Amino acid sequence: MKFIIVGLGNFGASLAEKLTQQGNEVIGIDSSMAKVTALKEKISHTICLDATDEQTVSDLPLRNTDIVMICIGENQGTNVLATALFKNLEVKRLISRSINPLHEKILRAIGVDEIVRPEEETAERWSKKLCLRGVVDSFELNKNYSVVEVKTPAFLVGKTIKEIGFRKNYKIVILTIIKQSEVTSLLGKTTTVSNVQGIPQLETVIQAEDILVLYGSNKDLAKIAKITRE
């Protein structure tokens, strides 16, 4: 996939590096030449430019970019201006960083597709969400292995654990299955509750609404993601 990461502070730089390591093409943008220079050997491409300048931004390969992420965190005004500019240029998918609740409301009013909250979510988790289709959450054990929660891919629905052969066919271990159900309180409020099913048996049939908890190498998890996109 192809990404443009705007803002190479701690979060943006970490995310850009992780996405590059996972085999994606990443263009990292920042107005600070020092930040751009520090990352030029770590991500695919780095550019020093003002992300609020329409003429400069419009020259970027936006049509060929899958996702644009605005990771500017130190200046709320610049973040909003850059987000609005990329939105007006009709990029395929726009994600922007939220600094506080009011800022988040402004971003939603602009019409961004998703909101990033670095104080709550790590760059590692976002790299999994962006690269592994259907990822709900993830936990990186080390730089090579992770545990991820994924929505059930369509090609697995209706099959048993034995038929799928996670370990044999994909070199992945299924740790458990999470089923979600709606519960209504005495006051009539409906909430979604996650129920962990324990270690799945070979005869367990995978359902469409299941969330699968998988363990494996990042490389093998990425292969599963590729299959679901095809």
UniProtKB/TrEMBL annotation:
<protein>
    <submittedName>
        <fullName>TrkA family potassium uptake protein</fullName>
    </submittedName>
</protein>
<dbReference type="Pfam" id="PF02254">
    <property type="entry name" value="TrkA_N"/>
</dbReference>
<dbReference type="GO" id="GO:0006813">
    <property type="term" value="P:potassium ion transport"/>
</dbReference>
<feature type="domain" description="RCK N-terminal">
    <location>
        <begin position="1"/>
        <end position="116"/>
    </location>
</feature>
<dbReference type="GO" id="GO:0008324">
    <property type="term" value="F:monoatomic cation transmembrane transporter activity"/>
</dbReference>
<dbReference type="InterPro" id="IPR006037">
    <property type="entry name" value="RCK_C"/>
</dbReference>
<dbReference type="Pfam" id="PF02080">
    <property type="entry name" value="TrkA_C"/>
</dbReference>
<dbReference type="InterPro" id="IPR036291">
    <property type="entry name" value="NAD(P)-bd_dom_sf"/>
</dbReference>
<dbReference type="InterPro" id="IPR003148">
    <property type="entry name" value="RCK_N"/>
</dbReference>
<feature type="domain" description="RCK C-terminal">
    <location>
        <begin position="134"/>
        <end position="230"/>
    </location>
</feature>
<dbReference type="InterPro" id="IPR050721">
    <property type="entry name" value="Trk_Ktr_HKT_K-transport"/>
</dbReference>
<dbReference type="InterPro" id="IPR036721">
    <property type="entry name" value="RCK_C_sf"/>
</dbReference>
